[in-house]
Amino acid sequence: MEKFSTHTGVAAPLKQSNVDTDQIIPAVFLKRITKTGFEDALFAGWRKNPDFVLNRPEYENASVLVAGSDFGTGSSREHAVWALRDYGFKAVISSRFADIFRGNSGKQGLLAAQVEQSDVELLWKLMEEQPGIEVRVDLESRTVTCGPVTVPFQIDDYTRWRLMEGLDDIGLTLQQEEDIEAYERTRPAFKPTTLPART
Amino acid sequence: MTTTAVTTPPRTLAEKVWNDHLVRQGEAGRPDLIYIDLHLLHEVTSPQAFEGLRLAGRGLRRTDLTIATEDHNTPTENIFSTIADETSRKQIETLRRNCEEFGVRLHSLGDSEQGIVHVVGPQLGLTQPGMTVVCGDSHTSTHGAFGALAFGIGTSEVEHVMATQTLSLAPFKTMAINVEGTLKPGVSSKDIILAVIAKIGTGGGQGHVLEYRGSAIRSLSMEARMTICNMSIEAGARAGMIAPDETTMDYVQGRPHAPQGEDWDAAVEYWRTLHTDEGAAFDREVFIDADELEPFVTWGTNPGQGVPLSQPVPDPEEVGDDNAKDAARRALEYMGLEAGTPMKEIPVDTVFLGSCTNSRIEDLRAAAEIVKGRRKAENVRMMVVPGSARVRLQAEAEGLDRVFREFGADWRFAGCSMCLGMNPDQLAPGERCASTSNRNFEGRQGKGGRTHLVSPVVAAATAVRGTLSAPSDLEPAGAAAPVPSGLQPMA
C-alpha cells in the first residue's frame, strides 16, 4: 500500500445521503475475479446521465469526493473501494461512513475523512461558487483545506498510522503469531470444525 | 445469595463473546486482535483474497474453520447445465479451483448442502452460540441469532482471516433493542426489523452491536430470529445478537456439526453464561412495542424508508430534516410513486420469495399457507427461491412446491437470486416488486427495478391480490368460486 500524507486535487460534490455500495458499483460488475480495472464500473447506473456530477467537464480530474451522510452503506463489497480508487479518487469526505466501507477504505489506501455535516455543506458551498476548486487533504494534521477554509476531520489513530506508513495489515498480524498459537491451545474442544465434513 | 466474590463488572452479551476471543488486547490506541471461529466463503468476495495469499506465498491457516458455498451469481434454473454467462462461470470455476488448491470444503451447485451461505451455516450446525463468525458478505449478521458475534467483512479482511484466522478490530459499542409484547396475527419478525430500521435509520446502528431482547424476541423461532439479525446491517450496525436460550439449544442439537456427548454438555454449560448481566450498561437503548406493530413495507430506496402497510406513501415535505426530504423526493421519483397514495393500492409486477432474510422452511410454509388453494393475480409473476438445496428438498417433501406451482409461481433452485440480481433473475427497468429480501436500493434487483421490502406472508397476499396486501385483506380461500348449493365437492 502506498503511503498517504497529503493530497491536493479537484473536489467533486455528491450531494446525496445514503449512497450505498450498490450505487458505487452495481452487482453485475462483481463477477470479475481481478482486483483492478473497476474504473468503468464506478457509479455505473448514474454515469449514463449526462448531468451526473462526474460527467461535468469541471470535475473531469476529480480525486476527492465530498458526499452526503451515510456514504457506503449496504453490501460489504470491497469492489466499491477498488472502483473509487481505480477511477482516481484518493479521498472521500462525508459526515458519516458505513463501518464496513470505512474499514475497506483503510485497507486500500483510500482516505475516508469524516467531517461535521455543517462542514460538508460549507465545502459544497465553496465548490458551488467555484466549480473545479481544489482541496487539500492533510492526514498529518487531519484537516481539509478548501480556499480560505480549513476544517478538521476524524479518523482513528490506528488507521491513520497505517495509511501514513503504508503498512500491510496481514504482515503486522503475523508478527503476533505466537499469541495466535497460544490462543488456539486454549480453545474449547466443543467448538465446531468444518473438517472432517459431516452432513 | 451466592457468596462468590464477583470481580468482573456486569457485561453485555457482545462484550462477553468479544472478551472470549481476545488473542491480544490492543495497547495505546491499537485495535484488539480477535480470533475467528468460523469463516464462510462464497464466489464473489473470495477470488481476490485467494490471489493475495498466492502472491504473498501464504497458506490458509485453518481450513478446518473454513467452508465455502456457491450462491451469489449461480443460476436457479437448469443448474446441471454449464452456466451460460461466461464471467459468472469463470467466477464459479475460480472458487472451485481455489478451494481445491487450498483444501477448503466446498458445497457446489447441485450438492445437497449447497445454498445461501447464511442458510447453510446454521443448517449444518456450524453456527453455534458464543462463536465469532465472519464472511465477505454484510448479511453475516444473520448468525447473531444464535448469540454468536457475526459480521460482514471486505475482501482484504477475508484475506487477513485466511492468513491469520484473526481480525484487528476496535471494540464495538452496544445497543439494546427491547421488543416487548405479543405480535398480532399476520405480523412477523420481518415487520419487527423493518420497524426498527425505520425508527433508528440506516445509520442509527453505526459502530454498534445490536442486542435484540424482550418477550417478543424470546417467543420467536430460530428462523424468525435469523431474519431480524440478518437485517441489522440495514440499520448500519456491525452485528445483531440474541442471547441463546432453550429455542437455540433445541435448534442446534442433533445437527451434523453440533457438539455430541460430553462436548454437548460442556458447550451448553458455556452457552448458558451467554446473556447480558443484570446491571450491564448499553451505550444506547431503543424500545419497540410489539403489540402495536403492523405488517410493514418500504416505499423508498433505502430500508429505513418504510411505513405500516395500512398507511399512504409519505409526503417528502413532512419527512425529517432537509437531507431526509431530499432523499424522500428522490426516492419517490425513482419509485414512480405519489405522496398520499395508499400503500395497498400500489400494484406490483413481481413477487420474490427468497434471500438470506426470508428463504427458510418456515418462510416457505407461511407463504404456502396463504397461497394454498388460490391462483395468483393475473399480471403478477411470482418466484420462489429456497435458501438452500436442503430447504428445497424439505419443502418438496412437504408438498410446498406443488402448492406454489398450482398457485402459478415459479419454483426454483437455491441461491441468492433476485435479491441482488447477479444471476439472470432480475427485474426489468420500471418493474415493481414485492420482495422478501433485505435491500430496496436503486437498481438492486435489476437496473431500473423498484423494490418494496415485505414479509413472506405479505409477499404471498400481494401475489394473490396483485397490489401490496396483508393476509387480512384476503377473502377466505375459495370464496371467489363458491361450491354451488346441492353439489358436493369431489372427494
TrEMBL record, chain A:
Residues 1-116 form the Aconitase A/isopropylmalate dehydratase small subunit swivel domain. Keywords: Amino-acid biosynthesis, Branched-chain amino acid biosynthesis, Leucine biosynthesis, Lyase. It catalyses: (2R,3S)-3-isopropylmalate = (2S)-2-isopropylmalate. It is an enzyme of class 4 (lyase). GO terms for molecular function: 3-isopropylmalate dehydratase activity. Pathway: Amino-acid biosynthesis; L-leucine biosynthesis; L-leucine from 3-methyl-2-oxobutanoate: step 2/4. It holds the Pfam family Aconitase_C. Its EC number is 4.2.1.33. InterPro entries: 3-IsopropMal_deHydase_ssu (IPR004431), Aconitase/3IPM_dehydase_swvl (IPR015928), AconitaseA/IPMdHydase_ssu_swvl (IPR000573), IPMI_Swivel (IPR033940), LeuD (IPR050075). Transmembrane segments: none annotated. Catalyzes the isomerization between 2-isopropylmalate and 3-isopropylmalate, via the formation of 2-isopropylmaleate. Heterodimer of LeuC and LeuD. Belongs to the LeuD family. LeuD type 1 subfamily. This is 3-isopropylmalate dehydratase small subunit.
TrEMBL record, chain B:
It catalyses: (2R,3S)-3-isopropylmalate = (2S)-2-isopropylmalate. Keywords: 4Fe-4S, Amino-acid biosynthesis, Branched-chain amino acid biosynthesis, Iron, Iron-sulfur, Leucine biosynthesis, Lyase, Metal-binding. Residues 15-466 form the Aconitase/3-isopropylmalate dehydratase large subunit alpha/beta/alpha domain. Pathway: Amino-acid biosynthesis; L-leucine biosynthesis; L-leucine from 3-methyl-2-oxobutanoate: step 2/4. InterPro entries: 3-IsopropMal_deHydase_lsu, Acnase/IPM_dHydase_lsu_aba_1/3, Acoase/IPM_deHydtase_lsu_aba, Aconitase_4Fe-4S_BS, Aconitase_4Fe-4S_dom, IPM_dehydratase_rel_enz, IPMI_cat. Its EC number is 4.2.1.33. Residues 470-491 are annotated as: Disordered. CDD domains: IPMI (cd01583). [4Fe-4S] cluster binds at C356, C416, C419. SUPFAM superfamilies: Aconitase iron-sulfur domain (SSF53732). Its cofactor is [4Fe-4S] cluster. GO terms for molecular function: 3-isopropylmalate dehydratase activity. It is an enzyme of class 4 (lyase). Binds 1 [4Fe-4S] cluster per subunit. NCBIfam families: leuC (TIGR00170), PRK05478.1 (NF004016), PRK12466.1 (NF009116). Catalyzes the isomerization between 2-isopropylmalate and 3-isopropylmalate, via the formation of 2-isopropylmaleate. PANTHER family: 3-ISOPROPYLMALATE DEHYDRATASE, HOMOACONITASE, MITOCHONDRIAL-RELATED. Belongs to the aconitase/IPM isomerase family. LeuC type 1 subfamily. Heterodimer of LeuC and LeuD. This is 3-isopropylmalate dehydratase large subunit.
